[in-house]
Amino acid sequence: MKTTLAVLAFSVCATLLQAQAYSPELNASDPKSFGDPVKAELTSAKMEKEGIAPVPVEISVMLKKPIVLGCQYIYRVTNRSTDKTVKLKMFAVPDQVYEEKIKPGQSVDLLANTMSRCGATKEEKKGVNGCIGCQPSLSITEVSVK
Questions:
Q1: What pTM was estimated for this model as a whole?
Q2: What is the total count of domains within the chain?
Q3: For residue 28, what are the contacts with CB-CB under 8 A and spacing of at least 6?
Q4: Would 54 disulfide with which of 10, 41, 70, 119, CB 3.0-4.6 Å?
């Protein structure tokens, strides 16, 4: 049993170490609208070896709603390439893994639940306010192009 737990913990840690994490900001005036996107150029060792240029993407986030013990966010990942379809494997929390193919110019929306709220006091953690101060992030573990 201990060995199984150790292997599982190592697997999660190894995945976390290889991931590229992006933390887009929530919209300060209206958290239920997408905030300013983070722009990134995604590549992998295989893409570099094959001479494939990095794929430009945008990642933005908005608050969907507070849930019982945490927050529910929607991440939008947009492929800004004009000619490459990108396949991404990513996660917002380690037990919610997404695998998506995104065509040039298209976007996908990913629903993610966190099991925590932000704020120093009980009052700060209540309702929408408990989700605004958090810094949600999306980690990309694998990138390939089609």
A1: 0.83
A2: 1
A3: 35
A4: 41
Q: What does the alpha-carbon distance between residue 37 and residue 116 come to, in Å, rounded to a whole number? A: 23
What are the pLDDT digits (tens) for 77-134?
999 999 999 999 999 988 889 999 999 999 999 999 988 888 888 888 888 888 988 8
Range of the domain at 123: 2-145
Q: What is the pLDDT of residues 5-58, one digit of tens each?
A: 443 444 444 333 457 999 999 988 899 999 999 999 999 999 999 999 999 999
Residue 68's Cβ-side half-sphere holds a number of Cα atoms within 13 Å equal to 0
C-beta of residue 138 within 8 angstroms of C-beta of residue 75:
yes
Secondary-structure percent of the chain, ordered helix, strand, coil, rounded to 5 = 20, 40, 40
d(CA 143, CA 146): 10
Identify whether the C-beta of residue 84 lies closer than 8 Å to the C-beta of residue 55.
Answer: yes
Residue 128, both tokens? 């929408």
